[in-house]
Design goal:
253 residues; alpha+beta; 6 helices; 46% helix
């Protein structure tokens, strides 16, 4: 009996390894074709699904933000209409738009400008609120149709942070720096580093600034979108002379 067991035993090294492709049974052509078809179908479905996500994502975000904005604005006057027994969706939104329009007319007058100036005087003396108000006012002033002295003048392209690299910015003011070497026209260029809230100010020679054929709103869209709305071609505009302020550079003895 012991001899029969020894004769029927097989060493482990000679046993068939199911994971070894050399020792596994050959696959049929039909199974290989089936696997190839499944891989192609899976790749096609994945591409089409991602294409649908790319198309629907901005649409969904746009509708969601628009719906949220309508509900948010509608909520200002909806409680007033609810107390009056008027339940019409969107009436509060239209009332809010009419209110904003009337505020614009009022602020354009001398009395409205005086009221706004007094309100800003109180807000700028609040420790924390004044910083939020200053940042938000800078953005609203930049896109304001009344391009006054505090708004962004033009879109500028400057060499930053080194030669050969460029950065988008906004010209906020111009000046003439008077020194012993002569007068030098400088432009104050605001370069945002975190959308439009935080940025750096550079004084750049006006001759070294590239003024592209972009409006201020287009420049803001380029910065806020992270450069995704960048046009394929940008051409510089002709230089327009401006009124400058003279600043005398005094030497320290």
């Amino acid at each position: 009996m012991a001899e029969e067991k020894e004769s029927t035993s097989v060493p482990l090294s000679q046993a068939a390894d199911p994971e070894d492709p050399a020792k596994s049974p050959p696959t049929s052509p039909s199974s290989s074709t089936r696997k190839a078809c499944c891989a192609v179908l899976q790749s096609w479905v994945s591409r089409k699904f991602m294409t649908g996500c790319v198309v629907l994502f901005p649409v969904a975000v746009t509708f969601y933000i628009t719906w949220w904005f309508i509900q948010f604005v509608d909520g200002f006057f909806s409680p007033l209409y609810d107390k009056l027994g008027i339940d019409i969706f969107g009436l509060g939104f239209l009332t809010s738009l009419l209110f904003v329009f009337l505020v614009g007319i009022f602020v354009s007058s001398w009395l409205g400008a005086t009221v706004v100036w007094v309100g800003e005087w109180f807000i700028k003396r609040m420790p924390f609120v004044r910083h939020i108000y200053s940042a938000s006012k800078q953005i609203s002033t930049a896109i304001s149709p009344d391009q006054n002295t505090t708004a962004f003048k033009e879109v500028a392209i400057i060499c930053h942070p080194r030669v050969g690299e460029y950065a988008f910015g906004f010209i906020t003011s111009t000046m003439v720096l008077q020194s012993d070497k002569g007068d030098e026209e400088l432009c104050s260029v605001y370069v945002p580093t975190n959308h439009l809230y935080i940025g750096d100010i550079f004084l750049v020679n006006s001759e070294e600034i590239i003024r592209p054929n972009l409006s201020v709103r287009e420049g803001i869209e380029i910065i806020v979108s992270g450069g995704m709305t960048m046009p394929q071609a940008i051409a510089p505009l002709e230089r327009i002379p401006r009124k400058n302020q003279s600043i005398r550079l005094n030497r320290i003895p």
